[in-house]
């Protein structure tokens, strides 16, 4: 079945998530009748394990004596190998593809964005640098281009990056 934490009364189910990051079933092992081959929101195929290392995706935490109705949000990275999940990678790629199409950016801006985007997804020492760089580039883009890039990655951006970019 699923794996246990140090406290054997707590265990994690396996999550089933579509390739675009929609939670399909946070209890894929304990409630397999709710599993789907494809996402009902976007039609993408679903996965139960990391595509890089095959570790199961951590889902709902079953805690003895506790009933939880919390909606499980998909993680951005595999906790076994550290590789970004497909939905994180697809958002980064989409943001970079959009940046290539926008007016007002230099090749250096695009290169800086390419280097900085991965650090917007996690809280690491370089996150403030990446977020500040993103914000500068974001402000250079004419029209709605900057907002479009932010809309693509905000669902996977770290709390620290979001605070710096939107001044919250």
- The averaged pLDDT comes out at 89
Poorly predicted residue ranges: none
Strand content: 5-15%
Biggest sheet descriptor: 3 strands, antiparallel
- What share of the residues lie within helices? 25-40%
Distance, first to last CA = 42 Å
Give the class from helix and strand content and strand pairing.
alpha+beta
Helical stretch count? 5
Shape: elongated
The H-and-E topology, N to C, reads as EEEEEEHHHHH
Overall number of domains:
2
- Biggest sheet strand order reads 1-2-6
Radius of gyration: 18 Å
- Structure summary, number of beta strands: 6
Q: How is this structure best summarized?
A:
By secondary structure, the chain is an alpha+beta fold.
Q: What does this molecule look like?
A:
With 168 residues, the chain is α+β, with helices and mostly antiparallel strands. The protein has two domains: 3-63, no CATH class; 86-166. The chain has five helices and six strands. Strands 1-2-6 form a three-stranded antiparallel β-sheet, with no helix packed on it. Strands 4-3-5 form a three-stranded antiparallel β-sheet, with no helix packed on it. A hairpin with a 4-residue loop joins strand 3 and strand 4 (23-25). The radius of gyration is 18 Å and the shape is elongated. The chain starts with a strand and ends with a helix. The mean pLDDT is 89.
């Amino acid at each position: 079945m699923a794996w246990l934490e140090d406290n054997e009364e707590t265990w994690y189910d396996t999550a089933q998530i579509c390739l675009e990051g929609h939670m399909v079933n946070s209890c894929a092992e304990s409630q397999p009748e709710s599993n789907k081959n494809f996402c009902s929101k976007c039609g993408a195929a679903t996965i139960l394990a990391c595509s890089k290392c095959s570790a199961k995706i951590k889902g709902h935490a079953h805690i003895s004596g506790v009933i939880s109705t919390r909606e499980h949000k998909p993680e951005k990275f595999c906790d076994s190998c550290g590789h970004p999940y497909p939905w994180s990678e697809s958002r980064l790629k989409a943001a970079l593809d959009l940046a290539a199409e926008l007016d007002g950016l230099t090749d250096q801006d695009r290169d800086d964005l390419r280097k900085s985007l991965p650090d917007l997804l996690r809280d690491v020492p370089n996150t403030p640098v990446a977020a500040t760089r993103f914000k500068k580039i974001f402000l250079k883009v004419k029209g709605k281009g900057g907002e479009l890039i932010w809309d693509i990655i905000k669902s996977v951006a770290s709390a620290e990056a979001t605070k710096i970019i939107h001044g919250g």
